[in-house]
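Box 4.2: Ligand-aware structure prediction
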Amino acid sequence: MQVIKYVFQPHGDERGQLVALEEFKDIPFKIKRVYYMYDTAEGVIRGYHAHKSLEQILVCIHGSCKIRLDNGVEKKIVPLEKPYEGLYVANNMWREMYDFSVDAVLMVLASEIYDETDYIRNYDEFLKFTKNFSDTVAAQGIIL
Ligand code: TYD
């Protein structure tokens, strides 16, 4: 199972840090939507779905959380705790986000606008869907 993490370029100087993300340069797709989660209650697990076509990059821009990825055969847990790291999540990955610190802000860059019909929320349906895929390899990034 290939899990791809991006390490973005921080532009740091004596004033502090700045990370800039541009589509097709730092992010391997056109960014059509950005959303973020914060004030996540203790013990909450979000996600529990895959997508038919949506690609995402997850960046925990403050605090920390964990992402459990599942390709239908293997599972991998990726901690996100650096504002300059992004986790690539292909459409055909079942994802769960959990263990949010109280100050966590999880930002998601998405390749498509919100479309409920793109969601696969049933795990058995996901297993049927994902059987037709091999691992997706993004253009850049570190394979974990
Ligand atoms: P939900 O799908 O439950 O989030 P997750 O599965 O990632 O934990 O989304 C929560 C609510 O927000 C739900 O009412 C749909 C809405 N929503 C939007 O309106 N636009 C979006 O881009 C997203 C991701 C969610």
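In the box above, the bound molecule is thymidine-5'-diphosphate. The first helix runs from residue 123 to 130.
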